[in-house]
Amino acid sequence: MLFYMLLIDSILFDFNEKSAVLVLFGVQCLLFAVLFWHIGITENKRHPKWLAAFMLLGALYLGPFLFGYAGWYSRAPYRHIMFFVPFKQLFLIGPVYYFFVKSLLTPKVSLNKKDLLHFIPALAYFVYSFIIFIVDKLILDEFYFYADGKDKDLSNWYQIAGFISMVYYLVLSLRYYTRYRKRSLEEVSFADEIAFKWVKHFALAFGVIVFLRVLFFILNPEWWNFGNKFWYYLCFSISLHYISIVGYTYMKRSYIQPVIDVPLDRSLEGSSEQEMTSSECQLQEQESDLSSWKERILDLFKTDQLHTNPSLTLTELAHELNTNRSVVSKVINQEFEMNFNDFINKQRVFAVIDKFQNGEHKESTLLGLAYECGFNSKTTFNRAFKKHLGMTPQQYIYKNQL
Description:
This protein is an all-alpha fold. The protein is 67% helix and 0% strand.
């Protein structure tokens, strides 16, 4: 018994109501980090690896307070360990979240040299932490940088700069998602299936973390005191828990792989200047008669039933018309006054109506007819039907007594 008491005393980890709660969430973050990394390796995908890195950074972010509430800051040698381990990688959390979003939405777009610039602040802080360790522990063998007895991870300048960094990358990620959604509506006929709406939930949780940091700073006049930050870190832990659960849930669902595999900072009109120039020339030649293109497109759908292809893209339609994507996109936008996704879904809706008129809904389910006409899901079918006709399929059948 004495041996175990001495062992516990030497380890020193005070399991109180604060440290125990944060340990629970910290361990959960580490487990999900391993799980996401395993998914990334086995499925050869990059976005689970980025999410694994985010969860690991979240666990490290909790480190100073997880161990601090357990008594590590009040006793050597743990106090010195806490000083020299850069737990809070505030300059890394934002970029990792941003590249998770990028790798999820555009999986074939890899990191380039320009992207590495996002990690320079984190690298600089790591070098800064390493220099402090070398000077205080190996050269002087006494506290010089840490003469004030305060952990550099908790310095005011670093906390403020890290907060600004996270806000910046949150905004950057939301802009990237917005461009992705806009482009998917212009490029593919199955935009709802690759909407990744859970990315917005992820962004919301990340935004809550950032917002709570400001809120607790305003409401708590003694924010800078170590012991007064528990409720913020508890909320941070809950947000991380939500992110991990939602991320894992949606990651295991089957979905159509995005086909928008070019950087979203390029324009829709083409992936090269040559294609854009060619498109502009063709459009200038036919600017006075865009209606003829409109008729060609409608005739093509009547004869070839292209809308029944659930994975139809703008590129495929352009190929069928023997032109390029820019020409077709402009005709659909100007002549039909809608984006490509809405245009194709409208063709599918009227194809379903034709089946209603033929009485096929009496011999088959509505969902079965929707699939035959190119829809991928019941939700997309119902949403498109109501958008273009102002009523549900059941209401249409009842109203027209079919």
